[in-house]
Design goal:
heterodimer, A: mainly alpha, 0% strand, B: alpha+beta, six-stranded mixed beta sheet, 20% helix
């Protein structure tokens, strides 16, 4: 009853891979966007803000379909990336990672932006009057002072990626070993006669994994809060 | 040192000022909302003027006509903020050495050890800013600014959030920096007493404009009309020799040719002359030497001028025996009933308890 089958193990490994890649690749972009939204004054800021939050409110199927249109084999971005870099998203695990990254992106940006908004502007001003260039201020003041938000955002995005279903299945389908993440595997098992045990095992595993991610993020954030992250 | 000529409008507030600062301490003085902080932020490079030009120590840092703009990090203007603004994620040592990597190659005047010695913060180096008291935080902030090798130090009401003993502590530190490190200082405050003690040159701002500028004793005592000025802002400055410290009563007795002056607390060791700021509202005039009474400071002199307002008040200027002037605010009624006019001999009385320690140079609380 409790033994995990090789197929289920494949789904678990794939989920972890997809979620990690989604988190790692979207993090630098999310930090940049959060910084622009928090500090910048530019035309179209509200539009950018809205665009980023769109996946949060759209039905996931719509987001998945939009990804299919843009990043599919014949999509404008998808065909360009496939020709130039040989990077193919459609019906590949990379596509699952892209879908997970897009769905988790608003959560990540939000957490980081909140942290950056709460930094007292005087601290950054002090750094610049001491001789620090804007880049150095960002690296030694803004980034470490928003460490808690960055960690929280990364973990939220990771947890969201583990649970992402709608956009993924629309964009890259449900191919065992390639795009079948834990939620897709659970869905398949519930549609299969005699798959209940497997669905329950994967569900319990999913709950445990999410809990671990949350506890780890809380701990890291608390440590960053008390000691600070040192870059210098 | 700094030549400032800028215009900047935001909302319904317009700053439009032109002045030069001197070596030593130049004070920017004015009530809140006068534009003092904006001036400092313009000098530091944290704000841009709409029009204007600022030169710091021979380097033009902004000139809107010529299209010159030097960003804050290239100006070498050390700013000490009202609320310290230390880096919360670094300990005190890292805060102090933050500017080390930006040190210009030719700079070796100030060493880390000298600065922490003068500021007496060597025991705090391992602490995080959140564990420091307000006064300690401000001392670290001053040290951090000093160790950025500034051409000029800018203080934005550094005493505003401190209690009185802490205020005096930081004031004597700023005096030390002024005298030992010879860095020109621009000091913002709305307290006449602080400015009387620190500054040699004062620029007075009101509603975004420079209303008077000149030497400290001129600006702080310059009153065109007693009605127009805030009578609580007018102080006279008296310089007197230290005669003795009275440990029994924790006061210091100063000798002036016009009489003795009793100030509260002790004076920093090594000081033989002390500058005392006396508010015009704390001075009482008597026509004869008063009999037994609690006031300890009685100074002899003669009336130089009586200025009357349309309102209830008159301002009497007294020339003390041996130099120095003392201003006394009183009612027009009192001035009339005593028949005060130029040449009348008077005795000026000042209560020790009404003297603000912040206005007495070189004072220490112990």
């Amino acid at each position: 009853m409790w033994a995990i089958t090789p197929d289920e193990l494949t789904a678990i490994k794939l989920s972890l891979k997809v979620a990690s890649v989604a988190m790692v690749f979207s993090l630098p972009l999310a930090v940049g966007v959060a910084f622009a939204l928090s500090r910048g004054r530019f035309l179209g800021k509200t539009l950018l803000d809205g665009l980023i939050h769109l996946p949060l409110v759209l039905p996931p199927v719509v987001t998945g379909y939009a990804l299919l249109l843009l990043f599919g084999k014949k999509g404008p971005i998808g065909s360009f990336l496939a020709e130039t870099f040989g990077l193919v998203f459609s019906f590949r695990w990379t596509g699952a990672a892209l879908a997970a990254a897009v769905m988790g992106f608003p959560l990540m940006v939000r957490a980081i932006r909140l942290a950056m908004d709460s930094i007292e502007p005087g601290v950054e001003a002090a750094a610049s009057t001491l001789g620090a260039s804007p880049m150095w201020v960002f690296l030694t003041v803004t980034l470490p002072m928003s460490a808690q938000g960055i960690i929280a955002g990364a973990m939220l995005s990771f947890a969201k990626a583990l649970g992402e279903f709608g956009a993924t299945i629309t964009f890259v389908s449900n191919i065992p070993g390639e795009t079948q993440t834990i939620p897709a595997a659970i869905y398949s098992l519930t549609q299969t006669p005699g798959g209940d045990d497997g669905a329950l095992r994967l569900s319990l595993f999913s709950v445990a994994l999410s809990l671990v991610a949350l506890v780890v993020s809380e701990t890291l954030a608390r440590r960053a809060g008390s000691r600070g992250v040192r870059l210098q | 040192m700094i030549s400032f000529d800028c215009k900047r409008s935001r909302g319904d507030f317009t700053l439009d000022g032109k002045f030069e600062t001197r070596d030593g301490v130049t004070a920017l003085f004015g009530s809140s909302g006068a534009g003092k902080t904006t001036v400092l932020r313009l000098i530091a490079g944290l704000e841009r003027p709409d029009h204007g030009r600022i030169v710091i120590g021979g380097t033009c840092v902004v000139d809107t006509e010529a299209g010159i703009w030097l960003p804050a990090h290239k100006r070498r203007a050390g700013l000490v903020f009202q609320d310290a603004q230390l880096f919360p994620h670094y300990d005190v040592h890292k805060n102090l050495t933050y500017a080390r990597r930006f040190r210009p190659a030719d700079e070796k005047a100030l060493t880390f050890d000298t600065v922490i010695g003068v500021l007496a913060i060597s025991h705090l180096l391992d602490r995080k800013p959140e564990t420091l008291s307000g006064g300690e935080r401000q001392r670290v902030a001053i040290g951090r600014a000093l160790l950025s090798y500034p051409q000029i130090l800018l203080f934005d009401e550094p005493l505003a959030s401190l209690d009185l003993p802490r205020k005096l502590e930081i004031l004597s530190l700023i005096e030390k920096i002024r005298d030992e490190f010879k860095i020109p200082i621009v000091y913002i405050s709305h307290s006449v007493d602080e400015i009387a003690r620190l500054a040699s040159h004062v620029i007075r701002l009101a509603k975004g404009r420079v209303i008077t500028k000149g030497s400290a004793s001129d600006v702080l005592s310059l009153v065109k009309s007693p009605v127009a000025a805030d009578r609580f802002d007018l102080v006279s400055m008296i310089t007197a020799k230290v005669e003795r410290e009275d440990n029994n009563y924790a006061v210091t007795v100063l000798a002036h040719p016009a009489g003795k002056i009793v100030v509260p607390y002790k004076v920093e060791p090594g000081q033989d002359h002390v500058k005392v700021a006396v508010r015009a509202t704390n001075v009482t005039l008597a026509l004869a030497p008063p009999g037994p009474m609690s006031v300890r400071t009685v100074l002899e002199g003669e009336v130089a001028e009586v200025q009357e307002s349309d309102g209830p008040f008159a301002l009497v200027t007294v020339r003390l025996t041996g130099g120095d002037r003392v201003y006394a605010y009183m009612t027009r009624m009192a001035a009339a009933e005593l028949k005060l006019k130029a040449g009348v001999r008077v005795f000026a009385l000042a209560k020790t308890v009404a003297m603000d320690e912040r206005g007495i140079g070189g004072l220490r609380l112990s």
